[in-house]
Specification:
Layout lengths: L1 H24 L11 H12 L2 H34 L1 H16 L6 H8 L3 H25 L3 H9 L4 H38 L5 H10 L3 H29 L1 H12 L1
Helix pairs in contact: 2-10, 3-4, 3-6, 3-8, 3-9, 5-6, 6-8, 8-9, 8-10, 9-10
Length: 258
């Protein structure tokens, strides 16, 4: 427990110091666009610790999780066979490079025309952006499989599902998790942008509404809520990563000790 608290203090020391500095520095601010932090915190308490949490934060979370889970499933399901079979990889690589080069934000107007303003459009935008780091990291993780272990599997005729389950996926898992972390960050960005384009609820819609209404403290409180939203998700993902890769971190620690 003491070690955990020490690590937590090290990680929170700089954000707390910057927050305190900003609070003091902005206390006398008369700038319309950069109000005092105290005014922003006051609006934060009124808005985001009240009814707007359910009406805006929860819908954003639901859209993000729907798009992110779909991106993880698609990225891993496609990345494993592409990484395993070199001929398939060479065949699909030009198509992958083409679609990866197209920013998902650029197709939002088309998706609005085709899919309307519903949640389906927003989830599709999240999937279109978050899937690429997961897919590419899965491919690279599978490609980087240990040659000695690969040959051992062949000698002992460990093929099919058994080879996939006990060798390919575990070996690629650290790289896959890196892609999932990047995909989550991209998903949060695309969630916000898609809601700013076309939504009646959600964090992005709330921020753009306050900006257009010139309710600047409320707008900054939404930005603060979005930052805390992303920070909370990153903490949850770190717990997930620690559980999934416990064996990997233990192995690395033993290697450092030896």
């Amino acid at each position: 427990m003491a070690v955990i608290l020490k690590k937590l203090w090290i990680e929170l020391a700089l954000p707390v110091a910057l927050f305190a500095l900003l609070y003091v520095a902005s206390s006398q601010s008369a700038n319309f666009y950069f109000p005092p932090l105290s005014a922003i915190l006051d609006q934060f308490q009124k808005l985001w610790l009240g009814p707007r949490f359910l009406s805006d934060v929860v819908p954003s979370f639901q859209r993000l999780m729907a798009g992110y889970v779909l991106a993880c499933v698609a990225g891993i399901a496609l990345g494993v066979p592409i990484g395993v079979y070199p001929k398939l990889r060479r065949a699909v690589e030009p198509v992958m490079e083409f679609f990866r080069a197209v920013p998902p934000v650029a197709v939002i107007p088309l998706l609005i025309v085709v899919m309307g303003f519903g949640d389906g459009m927003k989830v599709t935008v999240i999937v279109a952006g978050a899937v690429w780091p997961i897919l590419l990291n899965t491919v690279e993780g599978v490609k980087a499989a240990d040659a000695v272990l690969d040959e051992t599997c062949r000698i002992y005729r460990i093929n099919g599902i058994a080879r996939l389950r006990h060798f390919i996926v575990p070996g690629a898992l650290p790289q896959i998790v890196v892609g999932m972390r990047l995909g989550l960050s991209i998903g949060i960005v695309l969630m916000t942008i898609s809601e700013m384009f076309a939504a009646l609820d959600g964090l992005g819609a709330a921020i753009i509404y306050f900006q257009r209404s010139y309710e600047i403290p409320q707008m900054w409180s939404g930005v603060l809520m979005l930052g805390l939203f992303g920070f909370a998700l990153s903490l949850v993902f770190r717990l997930f990563e620690r559980q999934v890769l416990m064996w990997y971190h233990g192995m690395r620690q033993l290697e450092r000790q030896n």
